[in-house]
Design brief:
- With 360 residues, the chain is mainly α.
- The chain has one domain.
- The chain is 52% helix and 0% strand.
- It is globular, with a radius of gyration of 22 Å.
Length: 360
């Protein structure tokens, strides 16, 4: 539970360190081994498996969002994949089992997520073929239980079906976005990289376009936490497009980014990291606006009123005075963040290499 506080990544007490405590305790109890369930009741055996896979899923998504190494070495753990029988004690006869199916599918997807993250952030020693990962994602999607297959728009009231569809697009972005900067992609053709960029943009559009429906249908607070990351990384895709030389592309990108920011704003009470995400986008957009005003001032006569206009975000909040320390939520009064004005530190602060900065 403490791992959802954050991120305060410059402090030793952060999401990843709380997970470290949890993993250490879990391994000390031996629940990362199938033998830990020997001699226990069926009900307790299912609960132990569910606890372990909850930790494994959380580990994968922390690594994806924050750029930290995995805490769990899956090949050293032999706990079998979750099955519906592991939830038997939680459901009475005839009770809706969609939440159980959702947890099973997210656990299965977390294994694919690990391979994608390794491909993005690790050396070519752990190279995983792009086509294989794409096929793994498509196979996962095609094997979803019929009741959890999204039909039509996100106005579908089955929150688990909506969440799994959003997670699929989220993983497409992680797989394809900025592929040219992946260690294993230097030899890829320009055509292949353009195709990957297009796949990431299509997936980002699917996520961004769902935001208004989720907000208007009051579904935001019901979304599982791992789903919110998709709106953050979709916003990153569109942030990278807002300075396009094509005005239409730039306008669409800004509108889609604002959709993602709108949902993150709505999710502030449900997802602690939403505050951090909003402040990052506000900081980036205020910098971009300042640069645009500078360029405009160099090309046109000085307008005294222009320099006095306060920058504002999509929610009308004044961000003209946003400082680097405002990016920290500081609920526990942790130390100040690194100085973002120092060249080269911004990527390190975000802990997500190449997500924001343009390709070299």
């Amino acid at each position: 539970m403490l791992s959802f506080l954050g991120p305060q990544m410059n402090s030793v007490y952060n999401a990843c360190s709380w997970l470290d405590f949890a993993f250490t305790i879990a391994e000390s109890m031996g629940i990362h081994r199938s033998t830990s369930s020997l001699g226990v009741s069926t009900k307790d055996k299912g609960r132990v498996k569910r606890l372990w896979w909850t930790l494994a899923v959380r580990d994968a998504y922390c690594a994806a969002l924050l750029g930290r190494p995995f805490r769990i070495n899956i090949p050293q753990c032999d706990v079998s994949m979750l099955e519906l029988e592991d939830f038997a004690s939680e459901f009475a006869d005839g009770q809706n089992q969609d939440s159980a199916f959702y947890q099973i599918e997210v656990a299965r997807l977390s294994i694919i997520a690990r391979a994608i993250i390794q491909r993005r952030f690790h050396s070519s020693d752990v190279y995983v073929d792009l086509t294989d990962l794409q096929e793994d994602l498509q196979a996962w999607r095609s094997q979803l239980p019929p009741g959890l297959t999204l039909q039509g728009s996100t106005s579908n009231k089955n929150i688990f079906a909506v969440s799994l569809e959003l997670l699929y697009h989220q993983h497409i972005i992680l797989l394809h976005f900025d592929r040219a900067n992946c260690p294993s992609s230097s030899s890829m053709s320009r055509t292949a990289n353009i195709a990957s960029a297009s796949s990431a943009t299509v997936a980002a559009q699917a996520i961004a376009s769902s935001a208004s429906s989720l907000v208007t249908n009051h579904m935001t607070s019901r979304l599982p936490h791992e789903v919110f990351m998709g709106f953050f990384i979709s916003g990153i895709v569109y942030y990278r497009q807002i300075n396009s030389s094509d005005p239409l592309v730039s306008q669409i990108a800004r509108a889609s980014l604002d959709n993602c920011r709108m949902l993150l704003h709505e999710a502030r009470d449900a997802w602690d990291l939403a505050h951090w995400s909003i402040r990052i986008f506000d900081f980036l957009l205020s910098r971009a606006q300042d640069q645009a005003l500078t360029v405009q001032a160099e090309k046109a006569p000085v307008d005294d009123h222009t320099s006095d206009r306060a920058a504002s975000n999509v929610f009308g909040e004044d961000i003209s005075g946003l400082h680097q320390q405002d990016l920290s939520m500081d609920p526990l009064d942790f130390a100040d963040l690194p100085d973002l004005s120092i060249p080269g530190t911004f990527d390190d602060f975000l802990l997500m290499p190449n997500f924001f900065l343009p390709s070299a």
